[in-house]
Amino acid sequence: MWEGGPDVNRRLWTGPYDLAIRLRQGNKAHLCARKGADGPLRFGVGWLGFVFFVLFVSLRAPALAQDLQIAGKIAFASTRDGNSEIYVMNGDGTGQTRLTNNAGSDDEPALSPDGTRIVFQSNRDGNWEVYVMNTDGTGQMRLTNNADMDVEPNWSPDGSQIVFSSTRDGNFEIYKMNTDGTGQTRLTNTGLHDQAPKWSPDGSKIVYYLGNGSRDIYVMNADGTGQTQITTNPNFDDTPAWSPDGSKIVFQTNRDGNTQLYVMNADGSSQTRLTNNSATDNGASWEESIRRIGSTPAGTPVSRTMTIENKGSATLMVSNITSSDGQFTVNPTNFSVNAGASQNVTVTFTPTSTGTKYATLTITSNDTDAPTVKLTVNGTATALFTDVASSAGVADAGDGTGVAWGD
Predict the structure, then answer these.
(1) Are 350 and 53 in contact (CB under 8 A)?
(2) Which domains are present in the chain?
(3) Is the pLDDT score of 55 beyond 70?
(4) Closest CA to 211 of 235, 191, 192
(5) Pairwise CA distance, residues 249 & 267, whole Å
(6) Which pLDDT tens digit goes with each residue over 237-272?
């Protein structure tokens, strides 16, 4: 799946079997896409008013393009009511609902990996700060609070942290925090402008750009160590984003005179131009978002439903769904889906040890244009708390910790 600016459009799979995948937790599903007048799906992100792609894939059947149904939700910013506010809508454009309503501007919405929350930036309190809310607009909470700008929030793949850029120390630097606003930690300290941070799919690294006249792409470890410059350009290289497997980075640059899109390996090698025209191509994001299954104590399973839809005109035969990690299992793994129908599949995460785990699900089918589809999933295993108050003199403090009693 490819996201790009208005001049960067890519038709996905075409053929008699067009496969769409969406993940659902409870009755919530989220997807961002827009359909061009000529039929193909087009995706885009930008500073204001663009949408963020949160589900994995959506496709069109060429013979039935006019009957395309897009499942899921879109979160976006709009000035339709006079100032920028956050909205959601169904993938087909119906059900447009305003989530925020204040005299300031609310921008840059990003859905959490589990699809339950939206992080965004707002100047409702006089300056730009980072906020979070539920996907129905409830529970709006300010996460940052200072006299300067906190902007460009982005979720970690496991949904436990948010990275953002801030001018609180005089210039733009990269920070991260917990999703409740605690633990705000500065990651960069260059004295220049560090902006547009994006977490790698495995959560180990953050890509961003550093600018002061010119701009270049940097990568660092998620704790701020190992800051490494991976492009060198006297003009602008900026707005980087990871590929789904973390092996490549797409970015925009004006090194050839006007802004175009390039892709490179994650270490900065093999920089390759993707677009070539006299117009401006920008705001690209190459992202098949990681789907989060959930959080659970080690040894305790947690499940999430994946729905496979056949948007084509012939029967889709899924012959196998495999997982790269045995802690993630899928059921069923082979089935047929009639044209226009769907099949629910359960993805279960049963962790054997604590920590955030990742797996690649590979779906094999008779779709001639895309016989294999890969989806990255993750889950977090927490430590299992054991109440030993009766045997070891420890009282449950109510927050998963223990308070020892003196003898």
Answers:
(1) no
(2) 19-290 (2.120.10.30), 292-382 (2.60.40.10)
(3) no
(4) 192
(5) 9
(6) 998 988 877 888 989 998 888 888 889 999 999 999
